[in-house]
Amino acid sequence: MDTMRDRFAPVVSRLLDEDPRVAVVLAEIGKDGFAEAMARHPERVINVGIREQLLVGAGAGLALTGLRPVLHTFASFLVERPFEQVKLDLGHQDVGAVLVSAAASFDWPAGGFTHMAPGDVALLDTLDGWTVHVPGHPDEAETLLRHAVAAGDDKVYVRLSTQSNARGRAVDGVRTHTVREGRGGVVVAVGPMLDAVLDATETLDVTVLYATTVRPFDAAALRRATEAAGTGVVLVEPCLAGTSTAAAGDALADVPHRVLGLGVGRRELRKYGTTDEHLTAHGLDAGSLRERIGGFLRAPGDA
């Protein structure tokens, strides 16, 4: 199966052909995938070199001229390194762009901590007006990329990952979907965490929701689910643990509830190993999730 990032250049290259507003700005990373598109549209495919602050600044400048810029590099260089430009060049100037990342939390462990960005979504949460998509399969990534580019002049972040569920699901860039219904709590699986969550909860009487668009957070879907399954909620995210707990708490602010946020821990893992080893070390494999989810949702007094 191809990866989400494998879909990125072909999809956006087609959008460059279809829509004269679309532009692409690269910081060296991913340039080979756009070689043909650059030959066809040299004025709308720009490689600024390894200058991530300029990447965002140039994108904002293109947006000010009326174009729809798509900016791409590794998550740590797209959100963290040029955060001031994301905050000011896009946010303060009130212009939109589509930020499309690669590498996510620890997709390339050999790259070391410089290439890891589990806090990217939490960092964008400090800013106003961002839509955040976290696809869990290449088919979903393609759909959400098209949604993002077509979203007027909005500020959109699309978080691509090499981690993937076995199959894609119908996503619309807005709603959280119910995958399984139960009465003993609600588990929200974000993006590529769905398969592990389904394995972990196979013997648990819980509702499983699937979220690929986490900002805006689908508060209505969570509220509906808790009406039948109870207000014990577990969020399982491929990014920093607790990233969406505040959003879930806001959704249930008028009812007693408990929320547990599971995700990537804050401690740096210096023996980088493999992606699967990182998942296990952060307690995001199916076995660890089964224990953590079950322990949290188990009724008081249960053995």
TrEMBL record:
Domain Transketolase-like pyrimidine-binding: residue ranges: 2-168
GO molecular function: magnesium ion binding
PANTHER family: PYRUVATE DEHYDROGENASE E1 COMPONENT, TRANSKETOLASE-LIKE PYRIMIDINE-BINDING DOMAIN-CONTAINING PROTEIN
Residue ranges of the TM segments: none
UniProt-listed SUPFAM superfamilies: Thiamin diphosphate-binding fold (THDP-binding), TK C-terminal domain-like
Protein's name in the database: Transketolase
Coiled-coil parts of chain: none
